[in-house]
Amino acid sequence: MDTIVAISSPAGRGAIGLVRLSGKDAFPVASSFCRKSSGLPVPREPRQAILARILEPDGKLLDTGIFLFFEGPASSTGEDTVELTCHGNPLILRRVVDLCLGAGARPAAAGEFTLRAFRNGKMDLVQAESVKRVVEARSGLELFAGQRMHEGFLSQFLDRIRAKLIGLGAEVEAEIDFSSEDLTLQSREEREATATQIIADIEQMIEKSRGTTAALSHWQITLAGNPNAGKSSLLNALLRQDRALVSDIPGTTRDTITEDRELAGTAVRLVDTAGLRESSDPLERAGIERTLQTLQKSQIILHVVDGSLSAGENQLLNAPLPAHAKVIAVLNKCDLLHPDHIGSALLRVSAQTGEGLPDLEARLEEMIKESYPPDPILLEARQSHHLGAAAQALKTMQHLQQNNAPPEIVALEIQRALTEIGAITGAIDTEEILGRIFSTFCIGK
């Protein structure tokens, strides 16, 4: 029931900043140092944005901002909450927090606003966990998957699984408690078929998460080719910044240079490498060795060909490539195109002028999107663990039935599966099976 306060906007300076309070005293705490421009106290009017003067204890003006009150339970946390939107100077925001602390609030613990939302039934545990994923998403794909979880996609799936498990458990419990009644119960084969379908649904969900995780984390695009083919210039062009040093002297790049950017809604790592050629320079040879190692870890390889040289002067990419890698041959320096390359089918680009870069990026995005799962889902490790445990409990239940185990033992495994599913959302209710029995079968007749 404590009233908590924290800065809810990102660290650093900005145009605006946000201080949030939640708890039974959120309004009296925040209103104790806020006044309307007329000097009157801010009114207790839910969901009304009020221009307020934020005052120091001696009456001096600290800032002018927006005072917004939400009355619980119609708020994000389910409690009375206040949002104070101020200018985004950290000095102002920290001072506003100090004023709240002086008026009786306490500092919020990490994640405490979301924790209160969960405890007050504003979201289940899955949705609460997804908040961090949405806030920290590094790509469009991860953000989309996180938003789906926050909107209840997994929760709805778990509700359907839970309903099937309750029905399955009701059948077994009915066999235990009402075996002498004239009831039509499912056969063991029907129960096993139901369990098999639930297991398949769970394992499919886990596999979707693995596929999404792979699409998010396994993309490395390596630029390789002969020295002075313009790999570093192309890296800079793709990054829209001067990340790598560029020189007309062959062999300038001696080490790998890596930088991240977003392509096709996911984070990718671009790697510039030392040019591949025979060299007696120990340092350059060490760089070439790193290039070969980097190629083995790459999903896409850009073979950069110098378009200003004749076909005979360009050497093939003579390096062992991983079987899984996709190779795009890029004819760079097309603004200085040698006659040998007129009519070439290679993708033409110019790192210097930008010609062809949109086509190259489109090709890269197309390759990346080919790996995207059609139904992206991201499970947290805890969620995957409980789903896997639920599936294992059902497999054990099937094994017990096949070996003619007593229904009491079979029912325990179904209950274990229910407990694992309930642990994911934070909702565990062992009384639901009994309620299902009485609503489904006419026991009292």
Structural class: alpha/beta
Distance between the termini: 48 Å
SSE sequence, one letter per element: EEHEEEEHEHHHHHEHEEHEEEHHHH
| Gyration radius over CA | 31 Å
Note the overall shape: flat
Quote the beta fraction.
15-25%
Beta strand count? 13
CATH superfamily of the largest domain: P-loop containing nucleotide triphosphate hydrolases
Q: Can you tell me the CATH class of the largest domain?
A: Alpha Beta
| CATH fold field value of the largest domain | Rossmann fold
Task: Give the fraction of residues assigned to helices.
Answer: 40-55%
What is the count of distinct domains?
3
Strand order, main sheet: write it out.
Answer: 3-4-5-6-2-1-7
Brief digest:
With 445 residues, this protein is of the alpha/beta class. 43% of the residues lie in helices and 18% in strands. Strands 3-4-5-6-2-1-7 form a seven-stranded mixed β-sheet. A six-stranded mixed β-sheet has the order 9-10-8-11-12-13, with helices on both faces.
